[in-house]
Design goal:
This protein folds into 2 domains: 70 residues, no CATH class; 35 residues, no CATH class. Helices cover 68% and strands 0% of the residues. The mean pLDDT is 86.
């Protein structure tokens, strides 16, 4: 899990490479380096990728969850009163040596 978190941090820091190098300050006069930084900020379109990238990742995650996790958890099935679904899940998870009804308790 920590590997994924660290990878995410590195990815976000890597996105900073694509941003303009200038630092526009609106309180300063629009001359020289400040004018160049303002024009660079206006011409930059990489910010769109930075905004859209999490949307792409989340769409992928939601799609994966819908296809890979097709069943509810045992506790959710039990709270909804669906003992049959809970028994099916218990049979999938626990070994055949164990009593499903005893686990269902």
């Amino acid at each position: 899990m920590q590997l994924w978190i660290a990878s995410g941090y590195m990815l976000v820091l890597g996105f900073g490479i694509g941003l303009p190098a200038g630092d526009y300050d609106p309180s300063l006069p629009k001359t020289g380096e400040n004018l160049k930084a303002m024009n660079d900020d206006k011409a930059d379109m990489f910010w769109r990728f930075i905004y859209v990238f999490p949307v792409i990742i989340n769409i992928f995650m939601l799609t994966s969850f819908n296809f890979c996790i097709g069943e509810e958890s045992i506790m959710f099935s039990l709270t909804k009163g669906d003992d049959e679904a809970a028994l099916r899940l218990i049979q999938k998870i626990y070994s055949d040596d164990e009593n499903e009804l005893e686990i269902l308790g």
